[in-house]
Each structure stands twice: as C-alpha cells, then as structure tokens.
C-alpha cells in the first residue's frame, strides 16, 4: 500500500504531472534521490492500493505510465491517477483536465522535448520554493492596469500567458521561450537548453521581450524586461547556445543581443541555490555590497566590465552566473590584456579556466558563505 501525503515523493510527482503533463525519467534527480525514485516509478506503473494520509479509504489503481527508450523515456499519468489527484488537490485536477483533458500526447520528439524542458524548470522551481502552480496564480491582463503579480517569486508558463488575450503572444509563445519568472523588482524570460545547444530564433524571441514588458507594465510596477534565465545541464553548453544563437549572422540576432543579462542555472542542487539568490529583492546590489568595500567599486565607466578594482587588478564577479557579462568581459580582456581576477563558485572553476585562459586568476567563493551574507 502507498500512503500519499503532502511533501511525499508521490505527491510531488502528482503535482508536477498535473502541471506539465509529462516528465522525463532522466530528470528524476530533480525531485529527490534518483535511485529511490526509479524504484518508486517502477512500482507506480503497476496497480497499487493507495490511501491518503488523512483518509482511511483505499483506492486501487495504476498511477503512471512510462514509455520511450533511454533519454526519451517519459512519465505520464495513468487514467486512474485523476481519482487520487482530485482528492489531494482539486484545483490541480481541474487544471490538468482543462489543459490535457483529452490525454493525447504527441509522440513527436520536438513536442515531447518542449514538455520536458518545462517539466525540468518546474521541478527546479518547486525545489527552490518558488510558486509555480498555475492554478494558484492570479490571472494576468493586458486590458486593465492593476497590481496582480505576487509579491513573492512566481512563474507563469508560456501557454498560460496566452490567457492574457494578446494575439501576438499566441503567435510567439511556442518559440524557445517557456515562461516568465517574476520576483520582487524584476522579471526573467525563462529558457532551458538541457544537454544540447539550443536553436535560436532572434525575431521571435525579440518579440517575447516586448510582450513580457507589456505584461509586466500592466500587472506590476516593472517598466521593462531585459533579463533571462538559461537552464541547462552544464555551463559550456549554455555558453555555446549564446555564442552560436545567430547562425544567419544577422546584426543583433544573438541571444545576448536580445537580453542584456543571461543567467545560467544548472539543473541540479547548485542551480536551486542560485535561483534563491537571483530572486531576492535587489539581489545584485546586495551581492556586490557583500563582496566589496564602497571604495573598491568603480566610479566611472571602464573599457573592461568589472565589479571592483583591488590593488590595481580588475575584479569581476561571476557569482551572478551571467553569461552575457562574462562574454563581454572575455572579449575585452582579449583586446586589452589587463591583470584581472574572477570570483566564482567552486563548480564554475573548470569551465572558467578553460574559457578565460591561464592569465586570469580565479578566486572560488563558497556558496554557503554568500548565502549567509545575503540572508538567502
């Protein structure tokens, strides 16, 4: 018998599938212990007796199905799962029926990959405590200005943003953009490159920034949206996505020409911690204040983008995981060859050493120390 209670792995899986429709078997580590979850998934693909934590009634059914091979294995609801979901979280059940009511999922790789991209991001947001349940969020509008965005971080999936009624968004929401993450003082357009370099459509994604800005202005105090989160398995793949995003060589077509800031979020526990930092109110200024004295901060424009000047050396912080800034810093160093140091997390050292070369000194900063300084 399986007992279902809030916070359990079964409950987490039910919530995820109610929002995304399917989840990649290869990403179970984002929910909890991968080995334990693989055993649980195998168990849930056969008929079991289920009981809610506060209800003695037994429900005998199969909860999930698993199809596909290797990295294409995907987890979906079995028909009987809805009877349990409706008891645990009726709003989740209603959202699933409205979104995936016919339960006809495309076997096309492109459609499945898109669902998997969204699923991985939702799992990361759940782990970081960010509100990502569509049925628990205020409905946004483009016809009446009002403060609708929550005061705490919240994520809207691209398909749900269509409910704002903007026909232009209907045309562009199936670009690589998968949603918008609002936080106190800002908003990120969200992408997930997973473990492969992501193809990029500059014209479509450029429209997204304009549409998100319109949504932000009508539903919050924000004036513009020019930042993005790029989830992925590793930073090198994410960097290549940014650098190779303009295959046609059009002017201003590259990803870092569309977004001034592109923060990389690894699909692991480190990424969850970075998310918690990047969604703090005024996080950037707090981050710099915790690292440098006011006298060390540059007062005027520099030909090389940096965060401080210490003992005549330019100091650049990559603790914000901003790939767009990193590219500008790298290119400027190539031209000017200034003595420099880069602050980074230990898990970034190998990547940065390869990208920046041996002449830039890396100074690893423990994330726990930074989190304590920021109160994250």
Cα-based radius of gyration, to the nearest Å: 22 Å
Overall structural domain count: 3
Q: Which descriptor suits the 3D outline?
A: globular
SS-derived structural category = alpha/beta
Helix content: 40-55%
Q: Could you spell the SSE succession in H and E letters?
A: EHEHEEEEHHHEHHEEHEHHEHHEEHEHEH
Distance between the termini: 39 Å
Low-confidence stretches: none
Largest sheet: 5 strands, mixed
Q: Determine the strand fraction and express it as a percent band.
A: 15-25%
Mean pLDDT: 88
Please count the beta strands (DSSP E, at least 2 residues each): 15
The largest beta-sheet arranges its strands as 7-8-9-10-11
The number of helical segments is 15
Describe the protein's architecture and organization.
The protein is α/β, with parallel strands linked by helices and 376 residues long. It has three domains: 2-105; 116-281, no CATH class; 286-374, no CATH class. 40% of the residues lie in helices and 18% in strands. It has helices at residues 9-20, 34-44, 81-88, 90-100, 109-128, 158-161, 167-172, 202-219, 235-243, 255-258, 269-278, 283-291, 323-336, 349-356, 367-374, and strands spanning 2-4, 22-24, 48-52, 58-61, 64-67, 74-77, 154-157, 179-183, 186-192, 227-232, 261-266, 308-310, 313-317, 340-344, 361-364. A five-stranded mixed beta sheet has the order 7-8-9-10-11, with helices on both faces. The protein has a four-stranded mixed beta sheet with strand order 12-13-14-15, with helices on one face. A three-stranded mixed beta sheet has the order 1-3-4, covered by helices on one side. A hairpin with a 2-residue loop joins strand 8 (179-183) and strand 9.
């Amino acid at each position: 018998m399986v007992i279902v209670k809030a916070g359990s792995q079964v409950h987490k899986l039910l919530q995820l599938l109610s929002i995304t429709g399917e989840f990649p078997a290869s990403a179970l580590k984002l929910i909890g212990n991968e080995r334990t979850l693989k055993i649980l998934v195998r168990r849930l693909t056969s008929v079991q007796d289920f009981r809610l934590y506060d209800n003695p009634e037994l429900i005998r059914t199969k909860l999930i199905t698993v199809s596909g091979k290797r990295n294409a294995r995907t987890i979906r609801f079995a028909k009987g799962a809805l009877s349990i979901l409706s008891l645990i979280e009726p709003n989740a059940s209603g959202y699933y029926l409205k979104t995936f009511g016919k339960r006809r999922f495309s076997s096309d790789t492109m459609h499945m990959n898109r669902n998997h991209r969204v699923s991985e991001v939702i799992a990361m947001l759940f782990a970081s405590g960010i509100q990502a349940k569509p049925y628990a969020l205020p409905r946004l509008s483009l016809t009446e200005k009002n403060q609708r965005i929550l005061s705490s971080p919240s994520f809207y999936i691209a398909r749900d943003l269509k409910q704002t009624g903007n026909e232009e968004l209907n045309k562009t929401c199936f670009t690589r953009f998968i949603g918008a993450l609002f936080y106190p003082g800002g908003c990120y357009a969200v992408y997930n490159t997973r473990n492969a370099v992501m193809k990029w459509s500059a014209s479509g994604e450029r429209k997204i920034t304009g549409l998100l800005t319109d949504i932000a202005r009508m539903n919050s105090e924000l004036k513009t949206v020019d930042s993005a989160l790029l989830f992925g398995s590793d930073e090198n793949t994410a960097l290549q996505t940014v650098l190779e995003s303009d295959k046609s060589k059009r002017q201003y077509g590259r990803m870092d020409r569309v977004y001034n800031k592109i923060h990389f979020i690894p699909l692991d526990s480190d990424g969850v911690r970075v998310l918690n930092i990047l969604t703090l109110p005024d996080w950037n200024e707090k981050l710099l204040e915790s690292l440098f004295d006011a006298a060390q901060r540059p007062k005027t424009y520099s030909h090389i983008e940096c965060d401080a000047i210490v003992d005549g050396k330019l100091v650049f912080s990559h603790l914000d995981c901003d790939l767009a800034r990193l590219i500008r810093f790298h290119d400027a160093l190539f031209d000017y060859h200034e003595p420099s140091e880069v602050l980074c997390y230990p898990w970034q050292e190998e990547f940065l050493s390869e990208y920046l070369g041996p002449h830039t000194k890396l100074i690893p900063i423990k994330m726990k120390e930074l989190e304590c300084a920021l109160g994250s």
